[in-house]
Every structure is written in C-alpha cells, then in structure tokens.
C-alpha cells in the first residue's frame, strides 16, 4: 500500500542533513528533471521581482526566494519532516513509534512540484515552488512533469491511495489509484465537497493507513480498514473513488 500525499506551501526551516544530493532521492529516473528545475529555480532567485511574479509572492515573502537561492547548499531533512501545515499536523507522523513508524516510512510518499515524487525519508531542503507556479520561458509544470512522472506513477505496484490535491494530481497520473473526496453533510441531508475540513480529514486518514497493521489490497479491503477505525466512508461516484463525510459547521 502506498499513500500519495500533497506537499504544503509551508515548510520547516533548517535540517541536520547534508546539502541536496539528487542521487540520494527515490525514483532516480526523475533525476534529470529534478536537476533542471532545481538549477532553474536557484538561478531565478537572483532576480527577486521575477521570482515574486513566477511564484506568486509578495515582497514580504522574500525569505522564500532566499530559500530557493540556497537549494544546492542548504541543509536537508526527510520529506515528512520538511512539510508542515494542517494535513501534516493531523498526520503527526513523528508521534508514531515502532512498527507503525516503520510502516509509515514505507507507505507514505509526497507529490512535489520541484522533485516530482518523494519517499517519506528522502532528504530535501526547504524551497518554494507550487504546482501552479509559472517559471519564465516555460509552460506549465504539468506539461513539464507528465512525461517523466506518468511512467513512474504507472509503475507503482500494490494498492495506491491518492490524496493529492487537483494541481498536484495533474503533475502525473496514477492509473488505478483510489482517490478520496471530503464531503460535508448539511442538516437537510444534501452534500458538497468541502475545503475547510479537507486537509485535516485527509491527514487523519493518512495516519490511519500509514500505521495500521492491516495490508488491504483492494478497495473493499480498504473500506473495511477505514470503517473499523470509525471514519464515515462511502463509495464515491466513480469505481475508484471514496467519499469521507464530515458534519457541516453550525451557522
């Protein structure tokens, strides 16, 4: 079982690992694309106005540009420690212990606009690049990544649960993966896709699946694991889609 997570805009500072070495990252077939983007992003940092325009930043966020300038020299830390925010707070992978922590390290992966796809322990520096960034003289990042990333995702074996957001799912297709929607149920019984609970709910789901002793191999088995944990889950509109239903906020 492999759980594909989205990255986060917010990332932890520092790290205790050596500077970035692309050959230490998983999925080595992505190395040429990674090097091209890291070189490009580091060079772009020398032009703050151009960096702000490309990355959608304000002058108050110039520290993010400074991070990009140091991509080849900054310390690294494992990917699951680098990404922060609501989903990663709910995942709370650092609190897993023993066998559960080992399973999480094997089962969790992160989609990345800069690195394509990372395993939990891959050492990476802090950076700023999102799926919607528009680098000068380049088309979309989806057009850049798909030729390299599609074959990697197509080659994944076992059950794949894709929790990536739309922009990151667009960087590479994971055929056969199970996608997850978070819906809210209103008092009148109607439902809608929700953003407020989306990241936290997916983080809790990722924690459950990362640490469980169960090893589901298909969608019915996955449903059983989730339901045993008490999460309200249903078949979605598509054969390979699940819906997690959360209550609507009052007022």
From TrEMBL:
Protein name in the entry: Peroxide stress protein YaaA
Region of interest called Disordered, as start-end residue ranges on this chain: 1-22
Gene expressing this chain: yaaA
NCBIfam families assigned to the protein according to its UniProt record, in alphabetical order: PRK02101.2-1
Source organism (scientific name): Pseudonocardia eucalypti
